[in-house]
């Protein structure tokens, strides 16, 4: 886990968001252990209480569980729950703004799909350069 801290967001929140991103990206799977509080604190030179607070947020969100004497583990269904909530948040908060901008710019789905980056498209563009 590599981190660059943003001064406008509490470190525990940034750490919590990083773990959420790792679950969504598949870097942490259901049943996987989280790095120990001590290890994370040492790696990032932050207070162990900060790491504990981030991990507690994840427990409160029912994404990880504490296993006495073993550590913290990603619970079953965590990724699906995160995907559901992130999709709902996107549709509620980001999509209306994005849709309005697309309309202002006169962009339609056909144009967007044609311009969307793809593995093949990126290779073709590199060959033309």
From TrEMBL:
- What SUPFAM superfamilies does UniProt report for this protein, alphabetically? Winged helix' DNA-binding domain (SSF46785)
Q: Which InterPro entries match?
A: Tscrpt_reg_HTH_GntR (IPR000524), WH-like_DNA-bd_sf (IPR036388), WH_DNA-bd_sf (IPR036390)
**Which Gene3D superfamilies does its entry note?**
6.10.250.1220, Winged helix-like DNA-binding domain superfamily/Winged helix DNA-binding domain
Recorded hits in SMART domains, A to Z, give: HTH_GNTR
Specify the superkingdom: Bacteria
Key word Amino-acid biosynthesis present = no
Q: Which keywords, in A-to-Z order, does the entry hold? A: DNA-binding, Transcription, Transcription regulation
Species for this entry: Rhodanobacter denitrificans
Q: Which PROSITE patterns match?
A: HTH_GNTR (PS50949)
Residue ranges constituting the HTH gntR-type domain according to the UniProt record: 9-77
Protein biosynthesis in keyword set: no
Q: What is this protein called?
A: GntR family transcriptional regulator
Q: Which GO terms describe its molecular function?
A: DNA binding; DNA-binding transcription factor activity
């Amino acid at each position: 886990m590599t981190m660059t801290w943003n001064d406008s967001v509490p470190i525990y929140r940034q750490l919590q968001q990083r773990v959420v991103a790792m679950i969504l990206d598949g870097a942490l799977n259901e049943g996987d252990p989280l790095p120990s509080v001590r290890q994370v604190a040492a790696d990032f030179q932050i207070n162990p209480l900060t790491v504990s607070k981030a991990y507690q947020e994840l427990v409160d969100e029912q994404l990880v569980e504490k296993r006495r004497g073993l550590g913290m583990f990603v619970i079953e269904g965590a990724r699906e729950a995160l995907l559901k909530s992130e999709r709902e948040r996107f549709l509620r908060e980001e999509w209306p703004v994005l849709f309005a901008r697309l309309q202002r710019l006169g962009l339609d789905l056909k144009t967007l799909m044609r311009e969307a980056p793809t593995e093949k498209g990126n290779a073709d563009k590199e060959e033309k350069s």
